[in-house]
Structure to design on (96 residues):
């Protein structure tokens, strides 16, 4: 996975479904583990905080548009990754 390209495409997908400026924040493995000291996601290729994002509602099953999750899976397949939620408010991508 090329992280920079994946992040750009994820941002576009977020803008499409949740409007420009959707509030999600990416973190590198170093930022996540060393600087934040988080418990989950330390071996992930890429981490993202989604607590104020539309992804939080969709991926935790609270409300749609659920079609966004289908498009996210397609994007992940193109990049050879899948995501897990480490917390309800964080996404972590791993290689398939």
């Amino acid at each position: 996975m090329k992280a920079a390209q994946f992040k750009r495409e994820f941002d576009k997908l977020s803008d499409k479904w949740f409007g420009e400026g959707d509030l999600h924040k990416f973190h590198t493995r170093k930022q996540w583990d060393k600087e934040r000291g988080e418990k989950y996601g330390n071996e992930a290729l890429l981490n993202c905080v989604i607590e104020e994002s539309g992804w939080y509602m969709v991926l935790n099953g609270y409300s749609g548009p659920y079609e966004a999750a289908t498009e996210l899976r397609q994007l992940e397949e193109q990049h050879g990754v899948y995501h897990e939620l480490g917390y309800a408010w964080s996404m972590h991508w791993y290689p398939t």
